[in-house]
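Task: sequence design from structure.
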């Protein structure tokens, strides 16, 4: 494990899921299915990936679809708030999977 993995508790297998989830739910689902196939759904990595999929949102997709639909041009604090919520969801998923 590298220093970042030890410090955060997130394995290197989950970083692509975190990044893909910001843009596309279906891409992240494909990555999670690969994690399930390689590590098993009952492994710590599998549990963390499963909880992470439920506790985070596709930030950029959601912002673009909903804001364009109602013609919002000034998003102000939406992106920082959404990224903070994603960080909190990832932290919560690591914690919850560890105590399961």
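Answer:
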């Amino acid at each position: 494990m590298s220093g970042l993995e030890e410090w955060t508790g997130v394995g290197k297998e989950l970083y692509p899921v975190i990044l893909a989830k910001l843009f596309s739910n279906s891409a992240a689902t494909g990555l999670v299915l690969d994690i399930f196939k390689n590590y098993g759904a009952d492994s710590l990595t599998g549990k963390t990936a499963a909880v992470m999929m439920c506790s985070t949102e596709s930030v950029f997709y959601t912002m673009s679809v909903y804001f364009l639909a109602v013609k919002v041009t000034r998003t102000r604090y939406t992106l920082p708030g959404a990224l903070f919520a994603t960080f909190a969801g990832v932290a919560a998923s690591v914690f919850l999977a560890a105590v399961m």
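The mean pLDDT is 89.
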